[in-house]
Amino acid sequence: MASVLASKMGLNSLRRKQAKTFSVTVVTMDADLEFSCKLKWKGKDLFELVCRTLGLRETWFFGLRYDVKDTVAWLKMDKKVLDHDMPKEEPIVFHFLAKFYPENVEDELVQDITQHLFFLQVKTSILEEEIYCPPEASVLLASYAIHAKYGDYDPNVHKPGFLSQEELLPKRVINLYQMTAEMWEERITVCYAEHRGRTRDEAEMEYLKIAQDLEMYGVNYFSIRNKKGTSLLLGVDALGLHIYDPSNKLTPKISFPWNEIRNISYSDKEFAIKPLDKRADVFKFNSSKLRVNKLILQLCIGNHDLFMRRRRVDSLEVQQMKMQAREEKARKQMERRRLEREKQLREEAERARDELERRLIQLQDEAHMANEALLRSEETADLLAEKAQIAEEEAKLLAQKAAEAGQEMRRIKVTAIRTEEEKRLMEQKMLEAEMLALKMAEESERRANEADQLKQDLQEARESERKAKNKLLEITSKSPVPLSANALPPDGPNFNFSMENLSFDFKDTDMKRLSMEIEKEKVEYMEKSKHLQEQLNELKTEIESLKLKDRETPLDILHNENTEKGTSKQSNFKKSINLQRTRALILMYFSLL
Fold it and tell me: Is residue 117 predicted with pLDDT exceeding 50?
């Protein structure tokens, strides 16, 4: 087996010498990159090629990591790539990852690509539970991750179930609560909707600002033993060295900030941490693996260099990068405001168009109703006219009958009735004729009154018909309002930034102004921290009743104890860090005088 492996390695070496190149695959958090490298290339040559390909200028945070046996190692910049002790089978695989972490992501991360790579790496570490994250913070971080991917929340687009295929929360958090996937999605969506108006870059930065306060963020853990042979964990991060109990990765037993370490020596698998205070004891520990010792030493040197670099005035390159980043940010904000203004005007135009369409439909309905009323009025007028004509004819007929009855009565009066019986009969007939004539006269008068009333109703119906026609004429004579959907603002003015006439004049009041700026930053930081803590507490209260206590992991219990005590890994360091930043800022101002 060994002879076969040796023959394969020899064959690969022969092929490389003939081709004078070898293939490399670099795995980033976004994509896999393939390169053809020259045999004489050093680690620096390959690393710079990857950074140029990505457009990355903040190179000091990153490195190329490779797997070797049961551990990992980082590519050395001053050593040939093929001289490293690693598998040589092509393509040789490297992972482009963050090797060192910033103390404050908002202050130190300048480029968008740097921020994006950190966001992807930290998110992966949280989901894979390499970094412990409490449940309430996991929900809030998931909402920012969704915003970075989908943009502003839109209920018409982001309907229930749109997160069903997304990996949003650590499995530990999901198992800890008696909640369905729909319930988790609802909680996350509520937070997601509150982030409206942020860009992708802003959402990623908010994610990192929350993640950097997690106890295990940016810490590299190594198994060590002290002089007594006790098993411990060594944590190396941007703030210093920390010693942990193996069962508690959240709270260190003892910490050594970089500014309190005088020297770190390494010899024959043993490390010695010498504090700045010479009266303090020297802490010694050792690791059984040579590769791990070298990795610890690399991380200590790199983190200490960055720690000191942060406390000096920025280099010219960094100042230029920050200046370009500020200009780019200002340009994006102007473009964003312009787009928001255009969107607002477009929405207003659409609302005005909808209102005009609604008004037009309303006017059409009113015209239709008026037309129907006119038709009904015309039908009523015709019916009343017909009734009036019939009543008038009946009145004429009754008048004619009354005239005939009168003639009959006069004829009876003139006729002489000789006998008494005939006279009585005639008187009775006369009386009956008179009564009949009286009834006919009354009926004739009633019919005449009825005819007059029908004529009056006909006149009123014609008046209603005239009014309905006038209203219809008024509605149809209105001119429609022209619609315009292209109510877009004209192109905004062009802004040119010039630094030629910019100069600084520091006077005696500069120190007072500097103090006021520092105090203002402190107040803003406290307000943001208070808002974030309130948001996390609210999320924790909402889901606390569904928690399954028997599923809590040791890290969950430790985190709850630390929260109740109000202690964390960051709390003690940030006081000294803030003081040193203030001093560095004052020194920077004096250096510019």
Answer: yes
Of 477, 506, 528, the domain-final residue: 477
In a domain, 203, yes or no: no
Check whether residue 305 and residue 335 sit in a common domain: no
Q: Please indicate, yes or no, if residue 524 is contained in any of the structural domains.
A: no
Closest CA to 33 of 11, 14, 56, 3: 56
Say yes or no: 239 and 275 in one domain: yes
Q: DSSP letters of 431-500? A: HHHHHHHHHHHHHHHHHHHHHHHHHHHHHHHHHHHHHHHHHHHHHHTSPPPPP-S--PPPPPPP-----T
Question: Which tens digits make up the pLDDT trace of 204-231?
Answer: 999 999 999 999 999 999 999 888 888 9
Q: At what angle do helices 181-193 and 510-544 cross, to 10 degrees?
A: 150
Is residue 462 helix, strand or coil? helix
Of the three residues 462, 477, 492, the one that is the final residue of a domain is 477
**Cis ω on the peptide bond leading into residue 91 (within 30° of 0)?**
yes
Task: Confirm whether 186 is domain-assigned.
Answer: no
Identify the weakest region by mean pLDDT among 313-327, 411-425, 540-554: 411-425
- 83, 94, 185, 232 from 152: Cα distances, Å: 50, 36, 16, 46
Annotated binding site: 76-79, 294
Here the CATH number for the domain that contains residue 35 is 3.10.20.90
Round to whole Å and give the CA distance between 514 and 4.
70
> Rounded distance, CA 95 to CA 353, Å?
55
CB 274 within 8 A of CB 284: no
3-state secondary structure of 264: strand
Helix (H) or strand (E) holding 247: none
Q: How many domains does the chain have?
A: 3
Domain that holds residue 69: 21-98
Given a contact cutoff of 8 angstroms between Cβ atoms, the answer to whether 64 and 46 are in contact is yes
Neighbouring residues of 398: CB distance < 8 A, sequence distance ≥ 6 = 440, 443, 444, 447
